[in-house]
């Protein structure tokens, strides 16, 4: 298989004059960009970075970040990106854990870098930020684009979110990265010359996949450093974006913004989402707003990029579809010790994926404990819950840790959230289980309202929608916003811990509803 540098050169040979990357006034064709990439790769070598070394970056989505990513692929350096909001302690942990040989950062991260002792001991590359090495100097000069890596070299190491412990490094080889990008092109039916909005961060697998996928088809990666609805809409119209690949939260913000109706979005023909389930209400809103030719629900992870794909997401809401091109999927019984303890069709269990996938990682970075938990008998245990329906399509219902056990019954939050999202007064909703002396836990819905509504009215909506009685929320809390991670993932743990802002409005909060028990 091609290494990624050779893969990029093949794209340059096919489409030298095609627009490759856009970032404000910067507009580079493939032929122009590969010259910049070659110079930066040589510059990294001049700093002493060698094949297999880690470069840690703390950057937003900008052309310099994308250039560094590709330069690392040519040089065989392991791109190790971090959230640009990272604290000094978080940066220090990753620098130590990855044994980083250099750090690149921009102005927004400069205070955290300045407070990080580990950073001060390394060569530091600044982009619009004071640093011993300026990126502009690193990118000056000329060089020949010559790949120094093989397909078996490490390409990238992402870090998991670390919600309950220190983040885990997920190293991925160049061949796995390229195969994941090829599958992404195929599964999203991308054609030559697509234009995508590069807003999913390049420290997240969705952002990296968009970047690599565009390179394979002579496509354009339009940088949006951080998500801003107005800027996103302006770029969609001006650059004639053809496909969007976003988390549901960003879609929600786009389609519900006051500027959306006045923006020309007719160039967008393909929608894809990942990172979290999409509610039925949002699926309907997006279908009506964009009328896409293709609407893809992509279910995967940093560890094994694709689990399943549903190319008709709007026609079968809640379905994650069938296994991707490079995958096999099973659902095991909850708590199963073996991949052979298969759940029955319709039975909720833990989703597992074949670890032999061409897109898969090979284990966490220096975390044998995490490997022992997640990698068993050749299968990757995802920690997600779900079931297969009568058609053999997978439905993802949540996380094993999010499962609500109330009065002995297992309740997944996703179904309840989808039901409530269909009420016109509900802007966003999250469902968790909170401790109860009688039932163990009760189902509680946290609702961000777009119009006045009471808990009693929402309960009536759940009843009329056919939601099973034992799944109905017993309490409603109205909040100013639903807490989310920087990439839009719902943070249920904050709701459970009481870390949220109650709604401040003239609408009174609903009273707790009568507790009738899970089997009522």
UniProtKB/TrEMBL annotation:
GO terms for biological process: fatty acid metabolic process. Coiled coil: none annotated. PANTHER family: ACYL-COA SYNTHETASE, MEDIUM-CHAIN ACYL-COA LIGASE ACSF2, MITOCHONDRIAL. SUPFAM superfamilies: Acetyl-CoA synthetase-like (SSF56801). GO terms for molecular function: medium-chain fatty acid-CoA ligase activity. InterPro entries: AMP-bd_C (IPR025110), AMP-bd_C_sf (IPR045851), AMP-dep_synth/lig_dom (IPR000873), ANL_N_sf (IPR042099). It holds the Pfam family AMP-binding_C. It comes from Xanthobacter dioxanivorans. This is AMP-binding protein. It comes from the Bacteria. Signal peptide: none annotated. Residues 415-489 form the AMP-binding enzyme C-terminal domain. Residues 10-365 form the AMP-dependent synthetase/ligase domain. Keywords: Ligase. Belongs to the ATP-dependent AMP-binding enzyme family. Gene3D superfamilies: 3.30.300.30, N-terminal domain of ligase-like. The keyword Signal does not apply. The keyword Cell membrane does not apply.
């Amino acid at each position: 298989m091609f290494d990624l540098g050779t893969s990029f050169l093949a794209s340059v040979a096919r489409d030298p004059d095609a627009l490759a990357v856009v970032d404000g006034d910067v507009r580079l064709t493939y032929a122009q960009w590969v010259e910049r990439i070659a110079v930066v790769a040589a510059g990294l070598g001049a700093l002493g970075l060698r094949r297999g070394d880690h470069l840690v970056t703390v950057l937003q989505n900008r052309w310099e970040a994308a250039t560094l990513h590709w330069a690392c692929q040519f040089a065989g350096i392991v791109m190790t990106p971090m959230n640009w909001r990272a604290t000094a302690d978080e940066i220090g942990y990753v620098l130590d854990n990855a044994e980083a040989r250099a750090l690149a950062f921009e102005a927004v991260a400069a205070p955290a870098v300045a407070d990080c002792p580990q950073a001060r001991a390394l060569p530091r590359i600044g982009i619009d930020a004071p640093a011993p090495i300026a990126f502009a100097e690193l990118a000056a000069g000329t060089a020949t684009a010559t790949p120094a890596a093989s397909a078996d070299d490490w390409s990238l190491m992402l870090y998991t979110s670390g919600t309950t412990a220190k983040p885990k490094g997920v190293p991925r080889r160049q061949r796995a990265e390229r195969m994941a990008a090829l599958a992404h092109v195929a599964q999203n039916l991308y054609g030559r010359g697509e234009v995508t909005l590069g807003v999913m961060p390049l420290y997240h697998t969705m952002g990296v996949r968009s970047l690599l996928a565009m390179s394979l088809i002579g496509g354009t990666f339009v940088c949006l450093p951080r998500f801003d609805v107005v800027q996103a809409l302006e770029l969609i119209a001006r650059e004639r974006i053809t496909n969007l690949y976003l988390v549901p939260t960003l879609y929600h913000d786009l389609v519900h913004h006051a500027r959306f109706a006045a923006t020309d979005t007719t160039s967008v023909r393909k929608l894809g989402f990942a990172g979290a389930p999409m509610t039925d209400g949002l699926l309907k809103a997006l279908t009506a707003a964009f009328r896409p030719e293709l609407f893809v629900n992509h279910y995967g992870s940093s560890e094994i990029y694709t689990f399943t794909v549903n190319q008709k997401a709007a026609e079968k809401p809640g379905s994650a579809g069938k296994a991707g091109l490079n995958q096999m999927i099973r659902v095991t019984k909850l708590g199963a010790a073996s991949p052979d303890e298969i759940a029955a069709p319709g039975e909720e269990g833990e989703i597992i994926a074949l670890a032999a996938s061409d897109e898969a990682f090979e284990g966490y970075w220096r975390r044998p404990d995490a490997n022992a938990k997640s990698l068993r008998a050749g299968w990757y245990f995802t920690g997600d819950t779900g079931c297969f329906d009568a058609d053999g399509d997978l439905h993802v219902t949540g996380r094993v840790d999010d499962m609500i056990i109330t009065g002995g019954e297992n309740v997944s939050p996703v179904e309840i959230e989808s039901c409530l999202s269909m009420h016109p007064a509900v802007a966003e909703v999250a469902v968790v289980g909170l401790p109860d002396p009688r039932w163990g836990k009760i189902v509680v819905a946290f609702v961000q309202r777009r119009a006045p509504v009471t808990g009693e009215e929402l309960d009536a909506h759940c009843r009329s929608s056919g939601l099973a009685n034992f799944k109905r929320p017993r309490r409603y809390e109205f909040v100013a916003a639903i807490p989310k991670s920087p990439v839009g993932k719902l943070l249920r743990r904050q709701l459970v811990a009481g870390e949220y802002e109650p709604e401040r409005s003239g609408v009174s909060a609903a009273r707790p509803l009568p507790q009738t028990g899970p089997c009522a």
